[in-house]
Amino acid sequence: MALRRALAAAGRRCAQRLCSAAWGDTIFAVSSGHGRCGVAVIRTSGPGSRGALQSLTGRPALPPPRVLALRRIRDPATGEPLDRGLVVWFQGGDGVHQSPPKHHPGSAGPQSFTGEDCAELHVHGGPAVVSGVLRALGSLPGLRPAEPGEFTRRAFRRGKLDLTAAEGLGDLIRAETEAQRRQALRQMEGELGRLYQRWSDALTQALAHLEAYIDFSEDDNVEEEVLSQVDATVRALEQEIGSHLQDGRRGELLRGGVRAVIAGPPNVGKSSLLNLLCQRPAAIVSPAAGTTRDVVEVALNVGGYPLVLSDTAGLRDATDPVEQEGVSRARDRLREADLVLAVLDATAVPPEPAGLGAVLGSLQPPTTTPCILVLNKADLLKGNGGSLRAACAQGQPLPPVTFLSCKTSEGLDHLLALLARELARLCGNPLSGSPSLTQSRHSLHLRQCIAALARYGQERQSDLGLAAERLRLARRHLGSITGHVSTEDVLDIIFRDFCVGK
Length: 502
Prior knowledge:
Blueprint: H1 2-20, E1 26-30, E2 37-45, H2 49-57, E3 69-74, E4 81-90, E5 118-125, H3 127-138, E6 143-145, H4 150-157, H5 163-174, H6 178-188, H7 191-216, H8 225-245, H9 250-256, E7 258-263, H10 270-278, E8 296-302, E9 305-311, H11 321-336, E10 339-345, H12 353-361, E11 371-376, H13 385-393, E12 401-403, H14 412-427, H15 440-459, H16 464-482, H17 488-498
Parallel strand pairs: 1-6, 7-9, 7-10, 10-11, 11-12
Antiparallel strand pairs: 1-2, 2-5, 3-4, 4-5, 8-9
Helix pairs in contact: 5-6, 7-8, 7-16, 7-17, 8-15, 15-16
């Protein structure tokens, strides 16, 4: 069994060496974004980086690695000066494919982002300068423009980062809030990958011990207690992975934004609230009821957390077909929402908790979805203002309540504070505790991993071969998250721990 897998792994390694021959080209691209800017950074990666830098600077000697040097940059075909800027050289590997390491890579190895020879040219960011340098690079043999994400893909193939770190890098580039930046930076630095790798290592060791017992127990080289150790490891992993999955989708909400829906009857100020929060006329406001017919969506930053806010049609029994469709879409958004801002007219609600709760319930927000009750038009409250505020202060059965005037902005600070508190509760602190799940594919593979571990427990008593297959499947799902799947790891542990064949 183990021998067959070793032969299969050898075949895969041979295929990888053949594929690596196709990676011999050198890529280049603007890595600092496009458009006019003070400085543009143009990056190359691949075996032709050394020659490209020598050709564009006209100097055979390269600057010391990772040291900026001022150089005149010329078109190698005509000798025409293109710019005068800073260049930096990064010494890469030897061009041979490196398998991803078992743990998140540290500082050892080639000191470039991709693990290959790299060069950077820091030139002035005018379009003519940038296009001239790119044109000059494209004229060199063996160089071509990079495809989207190809630098990071090469870094992954060279073992400079795993898939979770690559995803964290993409999230860091797209981060728009402080909390998103903190979570993405933590993932890019490898915390999530190290957590999954630790589970994978424990599972690899359990699988190796189980296979050693299957293959060699008749020779008395493996003791019976090995099975008990494997069982204990599997139970501990089931519990730990299960706890990791029960995080309330904090990481996913922080990465993609909390979906909040403004809901309420017609003409209570829902669109005015949307415009007030985003500080621009994003939605049409009219005294006529039923103006909003479709969902209007904006993205906001509230307290450092991302919020995707939707204004919806007024909830009522509509007769107009277009308004009926708008109400239907509003109810669909309510069912999918992570947070509901229920807006009511403060001058038209009962001034007691039970009556106010009944009006809120008529909107039919999901009972499990967090809700903030916004009583708008508070500037029009007269005699019953005191009794209404007293009823709201009693709390149950009401959610958190805030009084607001979209006309005067009175109460806006309190609403923003409530919003920030709810967002912090839903997303959590990205800097504390274990790193959170950030991708739905992580959740999918982890759930399949747990399912395989559960099947191990069911088949352990009847067929050890099937039980071992369940552990291999669970390990494969963990490896699919980080991009590290290797049969040779199992063989290493078998021979290390049991010294079979001595």
